[in-house]
Specification:
Blueprint lengths: L4 E8 L3 H9 L1 H4 L6 E2 L8 E6 L4 E11 L3 E6 L7 E10 L3 E9 L6 H28 L11
Antiparallel strand pairs: 1-7, 2-3, 3-4, 4-5, 5-6, 6-7
Length: about 150
C-alpha cells in the first residue's frame, strides 16, 4: 500500500493575505479551531495548541513558512504519532483563496486502520476549513470544532 494521505481543500472568499494570517495569528485561529496556543506560527516556531474541552493538546513545530503561499508544520513533534501538515494558499482571481491541506505520516501501516484514520483526519480538516470560511467571509463563529462529539 502506498503512503496514506489526508487531503481537504476549500475556497475562502477573502484575499490570500487575510486567509494566511488567519492560520498563523492566535487571535484569529482560536476563533475557529483550537482554544489557545502558546504563540503564533512563524518561521522556526515551536508552540503548543490546546483543545480544552477535549483535554487535548498538540506540540507543533513550523518547518516551512512562506507568507501567503505555504505553511508546513509537524504536529505531535517528538512522538510516534508525529505527522506533517501542509497548507497551500492560492489566490484565485476575483474569487478568493483556495486553501489546500495535506497531512501525511501519522497513519497506521495497517490499511484498514489507516482508512479510518484518514477519514477522521479529512473530516476534521473539513470542519476547520468550513469554520474558517464562515468566520472570514461572514464573521460567524460556528463553534463547529468544539461541538464535535
Amino acid at each position: 500500500m502506498s503512503e496514506a494521505i489526508a487531503r481537504m481543500e476549500l475556497l475562502i472568499r477573502r484575499d490570500v493575505a487575510t486567509v494566511f494570517n488567519a492560520f498563523v495569528d492566535p487571535a484569529i485561529i482560536t476563533r475557529f479551531w483550537f482554544d489557545r496556543t502558546t504563540g503564533p506560527l512563524a518561521p522556526g516556531a515551536a508552540v503548543t495548541w490546546f483543545w480544552d474541552r477535549f483535554e487535548a493538546s498538540a506540540d507543533v513545530r513550523v518547518l516551512d513558512f512562506e507568507p501567503n503561499e505555504h505553511l508546513r508544520i509537524e504536529w505531535d513533534s517528538g512522538t510516534d504519532r508525529a505527522a506533517t501538515v501542509d497548507w497551500t494558499f492560492e489566490a484565485i482571481a476575483d474569487r478568493g483563496t483556495a486553501v489546500r491541506v495535506v497531512e501525511r505520516g501519522a497513519f497506521d501501516p495497517d490499511p484498514a486502520k489507516a482508512i479510518d484514520q484518514v477519514a477522521d483526519s479529512t473530516g476534521g480538516f473539513a470542519l476547520v476549513l468550513a469554520a474558517a470560511k464562515a468566520l472570514l467571509e461572514h464573521g460567524v463563529e460556528l463553534n463547529i470544532v468544539a461541538d464535535k462529539p
